[in-house]
Amino acid sequence: MAKKFLATGAGRILAVSLLSALALGAAAWAVATHAAISLAWPGWPKPAELHKIVSRDVANFADVVDAVKPTVFAVESRVAAGEAADGRDDGDADADVAQPSKKSQPRFAEPDDTPDTPHPPSRHLMVSRGSGFFISRDGYAVTNGHVVENADSTQILTDDQTTYPAKVVGIDPVSDLALLKVDGRDDFPFVTFADELPRVGSWVLAFGNPFGLGGTVTAGIVSARERNIGMISNQDLIQIDAPINKGDSGGPSFDLDGKVVGVNTMIISPSGGSIGIAFAIPAETVKTVMPQLKDKGAVTRGWLGVQMQPVTPDIAESLEIKDVRGALVVRLEATSPAAKAGIAAGDVITSVDDEPIKQASDLARKVTKSAPGTQLRLGVLRHGEQKTASVTLGAMPIPRNASTITPPAR
User: Fold this and answer.
1) Which of 239, 265, 298 is at the close of a domain?
2) Domains in the chain: how many in total?
3) 319: domain CATH number?
4) What angle do CA 307, 363, 376 make, to 5 degrees?
5) Catalytic residue among 77, 146, 241, 361, which?
6) Residue 407 lies in a domain
7) Is 34 labeled as catalytic in the residue annotation?
8) Each residue of 141-161: pLDDT tens digit?
9) How far apart are CA 91 and CA 82, in angstroms?
């Protein structure tokens, strides 16, 4: 009887396994042939919808590349560098890439300080190579500020292998963006910008001039949005995993609709090469900065004059506050707008014009997007008591050693 039972049980198990295999096979065949089968999992796409999702040929970006590639160019800037007063050679270039343990600003224009022509022993020519793209038919173009800062001369090489001299109209050291003007034509192919941030997980195509090789495209996805890595300004960066290397600075990243979602500006790497952690300046920032650079060669931003840090659970406990949110004022300048408004170190700014401030970056974003002279009403928590302060924003000081460009005659 036991043998019969075991044999019967095994037979049933085998039969169930075969039926399961046949059922899965039938479901797969049905999806492949667009059969109308309702799958059991809640929220799972119906076969027709699933086919629509998986049938898109995302592995072939050729049409997008063909459409946008002519808008991108290589940038070459030259600086005659000499012996500094302290004996240090001014031609030594920035490291360009952020090492995880270092605080230096990461950039990745490709420096080449090999002398091109004979110079006196104390002087040589440093060449910086990067990328850029046209934003107007009459030759206005975008690149990174660190690609062209302090340049004595700048030229571009377009996709059709034509070289043009370029004038640096303005540089914004806060966003690391620069506006170029290229004369000689009024029919340059130019880009359009995306209207909103890309979704995490969406495809991006990064264009550039890695190591001076010329027009190159790489593909990846958006890894994160609104990333504040604390190494440059408080702007929110787009993190992408498309391979980015030296010389790609200033190149655009496109979505699959052929619209620019960001400007490639830096990578983080322990080795100096791409490891899939790259950052792009959002299109929204570019659209805000470029008109000001075109009109006056510089960008003005609101300034509060405080150093802030997030409110952590430990800080909230030490300050005896219930909500773990807001921006803790660590230090402020004596003559800053915040000081004049009565803000003090140790205060927690919890709102701006009645809009809650969840973290320090929210406050920084609100302030820098406002024009100097704007009046803001701040909600302030001091010693457990909620107060209100009215502040008139000043103008953000230009960072030290920032390049200044005389705006074009109008």
Assistant:
1) 298
2) 2
3) 2.30.42.10
4) 105
5) 146
6) no
7) no
8) 999 999 999 899 999 999 999
9) 7
